[in-house]
Amino acid sequence: MATFIGDFVCKADAKGRFVLPSHFKKVMNGMEENRFVFRKDLHTNCLFAYPYPVWEAHIEDIRSKLNMYDRADSLAYRQYVRTATEVSFDANGRMLLPKRLVQIIGSPKEVVMAGVDDKIEVWNSADYGVGEMTESELDVYLQNKLGEKSNTEQKEDA
């Protein structure tokens, strides 16, 4: 399983390509993969970049929870999947993101690529970090969520 950690400022070149940070490229090379699937996050104004195998597992998980004979499930699945786009990076780590995706985050010339476990978030650098919890809010939240019992213990109690 790929794990992406860290955040990196990336500037577009003259052709509008962004270079994948070397740390992220190493993770992808370890997976022997050069393809991502990009889609807009449902909750924030950023893009998610899933390594292709992670995307396949993600979609399979969603598909397993939906009934494709249910109209609402089918429409939601179609909308979720059709807004995704496969993007490859070259030997130098350069990627050309489709204009429609770059427009979603404000057509920036500079983005932040932030590793978040098995995917990368791509943010307009002007928006990155806006609306985050303070350190003390994060501390309280995690204490309430994780302080007394582990996630495994909580699931067993349910």
From TrEMBL:
Gene3D superfamilies: Transcriptional regulator MraZ domain
GO biological process, one term: negative regulation of DNA-templated transcription initiation
Gene Ontology molecular function: DNA-binding transcription factor activity; transcription cis-regulatory region binding
The keyword Transcription regulation is assigned to this record: yes
Pfam families hit by this protein: MraZ (PF02381)
Domain SpoVT-AbrB residue range list: 84-127
Top-level taxon of origin: Bacteria
Family of this protein: Belongs to the MraZ family.
Subunit architecture: Forms oligomers.
Protein name per its UniProtKB record: Transcriptional regulator MraZ
Species this protein is from: Saccharicrinis fermentans DSM 9555 = JCM 21142
Gene giving rise to this polypeptide: mraZ
